[in-house]
Design brief:
By secondary structure, this protein is mainly alpha-helical. Helices cover about 75% and strands about 0% of the residues.
Length: about 210
């Protein structure tokens, strides 16, 4: 593959957006931002987008090295990420919202926006492994630059999706938000279980028995 081939960047961009799927994070994001507060929603979206960018850049530049340094396999990484998703989902099922509805976004940003929205819901094990894999697939010097550009576009896309989601929240109401949060908690538990099972299948060489 040519070092500067735009097709390589487009392929990486499409793959990362498809795996990250920020649209799936919108209900969880809405459960964490103050209702009807568009500036706070944009601020929260900025925090998530910057976190996603930093996480994926780390994966592109040195993710594989870090995992190998600590002797962590991709299978173990999937299981760990799955457990984090599962715990976040269980918390949402119990509380009916991602965090206290009366708290401000800055007060809980590190705990509830970075985890689980930025990671692992958007920049989860699948997204990180995809970034690592696509970076490692090519030996040419231009590939990391293309991947960094693709990650920047993905982060911008995440910001747009989350920032524009704020107009939905006032129309849901408190009851609607609680229903959405509990439903997404159940979905997160299912996603976490899938990641755990996939990681176990990878570890024991049974990968073909489970979907990605």
């Amino acid at each position: 593959m040519a070092a500067g081939d735009p097709g390589n960047a487009l392929q990486a961009l499409v793959a990362l957006i498809a795996i990250a799927n920020p649209l799936a994070a919108v209900p969880v994001f809405l459960s964490l931002v103050p209702g009807g507060d568009a500036p706070a929603a944009r601020q929260a979206a900025t925090r998530v987008a910057l976190a996603v960018f930093a996480i994926l850049i780390g994966a592109v530049v040195g993710g594989r090295i870090v995992l190998e340094m600590f002797g962590i396999s991709f299978a173990a990484f999937r299981v760990g990420g799955g457990l984090v998703v599962t715990l976040a989902g269980l918390d949402m099922l119990r509380s009916g919202h991602g965090a206290g509805a009366n708290e401000t976004v800055p007060a809980r940003a590190a705990e509830h926006l970075i985890v689980p929205v930025a990671m692992p819901l958007i920049a989860g094990p699948g997204t990180i492994i995809t970034a690592m894999t696509m970076t490692a697939r090519a030996a040419d010097a231009g590939r990391p630059v293309l991947m960094i550009a693709a990650v920047a576009v993905v982060a911008a896309f995440v910001w747009v999706v989350l920032a524009l989601s704020s107009w939905v929240q006032p129309r849901l109401g408190e009851r609607g938000q609680a229903i959405v949060a509990r439903f997404m908690g159940l979905v997160l538990v299912a996603i976490g279980a899938q990641l755990v099972l996939t990681g176990i299948a990878d570890f024991f060489g049974l990968r073909a028995a489970l979907p990605a």
